[in-house]
Specification:
Length: about 550
C-alpha cells in the first residue's frame, strides 16, 4: 500500500474518498490521523483519531496514536486513558501501546516504570522500544555508567547481527588523500526546527567546500523554516523518509560517501540501521545523543575534554575524538530582545528550569529546594509540557513540600508551542538551574542567549558534563560551574545577593556568548575539518 511504502501524501485522497464512500471506515480515519501526526499537524490528527474512536472506542491503533499526541501536549492523564483502552479487550499483546506507555511514563518523570514498559514492548516485537530503554537510562540517578554502557553494548551486538554488511571499502577503492575533497554524509530526521538543528547550522554553513562536500540524508517528514534554512547551505540534499535503511545505505554507497555522520544516536527517528549496513568506510556519531550508540560499525564519537575528560572512567564502543574547546557550536536564530532582570521589579530572585521533566528527578528537586531554603524570599519557575496536567503539578508541589518548600513559591506552567513564546518566557527567570545526571544542552544555550545565567553541577559522565563544556566557553559564565551540591547552592546564593551584578551579567550575556567559542562557527568547522582529515589519514594508513 501507499502507507506501507511511505508515499504518504499520495495516500491522503484515497483515504478521504474511502471516508466519503463509508463514513464508518475506522482504518481510513486512523491512517489520516497518522499522516497528520507525522507532519506535526496535531489538531487535524486529533480530529481524525477521535472520529475513528466515535465508531470504535476501543480501536487500539487510534487510541495508541492519540495517546502519543496527548503526551506531546503534556496531557498525561488523557494519554493514560487512551492507553488503557488500547490494551483492553484482548489487546494485551499490542507492543506499540506498551512503547507509548513508556514514553508517557518518561515524560512524567517515572523513568523506572518507563523502562519496564519499553522492555515489555521490545519483548512483544517493537524494535524501537530498546532505543527508548537506552535513552531513558541516561535519566537515571545513582546508576553507574558501566551498567548503562553495558546495556548499549548488548543492544549493539544484537542489533548489528540482523543487518547485511557491504563488502569493506579499501583505500585502493577510493584513491583519495587528505588533499582531495572528502564527501561527508549526515543522516538525521531533525533537519528542521528541532533542537539538534541549532547545532547543525554552523556545520553546514561553515564547511570549507574546497576540502569537503556535504550530503544531507534527511529522514524526517517535516519541512519548515528550519529545513529551508539548512537547505540553503551548500550540500547535496536528499529527502529520504520513505526509504528503508537498506535503500538509504545503498544510496550512500552509490554516492561514495567517505565519512558518514549519525546525528541522532538512540533518540527518536534515528536510522542506526543505515549505519549497521556499514555503507561508508568511516562512521561517526555526534550532537544528538549523550552516550555511546553501542554499534560496532560506528568508529568515532565527537566530544571534548570537558564533557569527557581524559581520565574519564565512562566507556564507549566508539573511539572518542575530542574537539578542542567544545564539541558543540550553537547558532541563535533571531531570539527576542533580552528583558530586564525581573528581580529589579519583583524584589526577589526567581530561579527556574525549562528542561524536560524526565531530567528532573527527586535528587534534582531536593537540591533545588536547598537553593530555595538558602534564599527564603526566592521563587522557582518551571516550564515543561507535563504541567498541562494538574495531577503532575500536584505531585511536584507535594515533593517540594517534603523538602519544606510551600506551593506559593512554585510557578509551574506547561509547554508553549512557538519558539518565540518559549524564549520570551525567560523574561520571568533571573537564574536557571541545570539538571543531573542528564544536563541541559539546547535549553542551556537558549537560557544563555536570553541573558539568563545557568548554574550547573560537574559529574562523572558525558550527559552530566555538557553544561560544564558549554559554560566554560563563555568567560563570564565559568564561575557558574559547581563541583559539589553544596557549591551549587552557594553559587546560587551569591548570584541572588547582588541584583546589580546579576543585571549586568544578564544584559551582557548574549554578546559574551555570541562572541565566544560556543558560537564561533568558522573556527569550529576548522577544528571539525581537522578531525575529519585525521580520521581519513588514519584510515588510509591502517590498510
Amino acid at each position: 500500500t501507499l502507507m506501507e511504502t511511505r508515499r504518504i501524501d499520495e495516500s491522503i485522497p484515497h483515504y478521504e474518498e474511502a471516508i466519503k464512500q463509508y463514513t464508518g471506515h475506522v482504518n481510513s480515519y486512523t491512517n489520516l490521523g497518522a499522516i497528520y501526526k507525522d507532519k506535526h499537524q496535531f489538531d487535524k490528527a486529533t480530529y481524525y483519531y477521535q472520529k475513528a474512536l466515535e465508531y470504535d472506542p476501543t480501536f487500539p491503533i487510534a487510541n495508541n496514536n492519540l495517546a502519543i499526541i496527548y503526551s506531546m501536549q503534556g496531557k498525561i492523564a488523557s494519554a493514560h486513558e487512551c492507553l488503557k483502552r488500547a490494551l483492553a479487550g484482548g489487546q494485551s499483546g499490542y507492543a506499540d501501546a506498551f512503547n507509548t506507555t513508556g514514553v508517557v511514563y518518561r515524560d512524567e518523570g517515572e523513568t523506572q516504570r518507563a523502562i519496564i514498559a519499553f522492555k515489555q514492548a521490545y519483548k512483544l516485537g517493537c524494535s524501537p522500544a530498546m532505543d527508548n530503554v537506552l535513552l531513558a537510562m541516561n535519566d537515571l540517578p545513582n546508576t553507574s555508567s558501566e551498567i548503562v554502557t553495558k546495556a548499549h553494548e548488548d543492544w549493539g551486538k544484537e542489533f548489528t547481527a540482523k543487518y547485511y554488511k557491504f563488502p569493506p571499502i579499501t583505500p585502493e577503492d577510493r584513491k583519495k588523500t587528505t588533499s582531495d575533497v572528502l564527501k561527508i554524509g549526515y543522516v538525521s530526521a531533525d533537519l528542521n526546527m528541532h533542537a539538534v538543528s541549532y547545532f547543525v547550522d554552523a556545520v553546514l554553513k561553515y564547511t570549507d567546500t574546497s576540502k569537503f562536500q556535504n550530503y544531507c540524508y534527511y529522514t524526517g517528514m517535516i519541512d519548515d523554516k528550519g529545513t529551508e534554512r539548512l537547505k540553503a547551505y551548500p550540500s547535496e540534499w536528499k529527502k529520504v523518509p520513505s526509504l528503508s535503511d537498506q535503500e538509504i545505505a545503498n544510496m550512500i554507497r552509490a554516492d561514495e560517501i567517505d565519512i558518514l555522520v549519525d546525528l541522532a544516536g538512540h533518540s527518536g527517528g534515528n536510522r542506526l540501521g543505515v549505519f549497521a549496513h556499514k555503507p561508508a568506510p568511516i562512521q561517526v556519531t555526534w550532537i544528538g545523543y549523550p552516550n555511546s550508540t553501542g554499534l560496532p560499525e560506528i568508529e568515532y564519537r565527537f566530544t571534548d575534554a570537558l564533557a569527557d575528560p581524559l581520565d574519564t572512567t565512562q566507556r564507549f564502543t566508539e573511539k572518542l575524538y575530542r574537539i578542542p574547546d567544545c564539541f558543540l557550536c550553537y547558532t541563535p536564530r533571531n531570539p527576542p530582545q533580552v528583558s530586564p532582570l525581573p528581580a529589579l521589579t519583583n524584589g526577589y530572585i526567581t530561579f527556574g528550569s525549562f528542561n524536560n521533566f524526565a531530567k528532573i528527578n527527586n535528587f534534582v528537586m531536593e537540591l533545588w529546594a536547598k537553593v530555595l531554603a538558602r534564599i527564603p524570599t526566592s521563587r522557582l519557575f518551571m516550564k515543561c509540557k507535563p504541567f498541562a496536567c494538574e495531577t503532575i503539578k500536584e505531585r511536584v508541589r507535594n515533593q517540594f513540600a517534603k523538602y519544606g518548600i510551600t506551593s506559593d513559591r512554585l510557578k509551574l506552567i506547561g509547554h508553549l508551542q512557538q519558539t518565540t513564546d518559549h524564549l520570551d518566557a525567560y523574561r520571568y527567570l533571573d537564574v536557571a538551574l541545570d539538571t543531573f545526571p542528564y544536563a541541559g544542552t539546547t535549553t542551556t544555550c537558549e537560557s544563555l542567549v536570553m541573558g539568563v545565567p545557568v548554574v550547573t553541577l560537574r559529574g562523572d559522565n558525558h550527559a552530566h558534563n555538557v553544561g560544564v563544556s558549554l559554560l566554560t566557553q563563555i568567560p563570564s559564565t565559568r564561575h557558574l560551574i559547581s563541583d559539589t551540591p553544596e557549591q551549587f547552592v552557594s553559587i546560587c546564593a551569591q548570584l541572588a545577593s547582588d541584583f546589580e551584578s546579576l543585571s549586568n551579567l544578564r544584559m551582557n550575556l548574549r554578546e559574551d556568548m555570541v562572541n565566544s567559542e560556543l558560537c564561533n562557527g568558522p573556527h569550529y568547522m576548522t577544528k571539525v575539518g581537522e578531525a575529519f582529515h585525521y580520521m581519513w589519514d588514519k584510515w588510509l594508513k591502517s590498510e
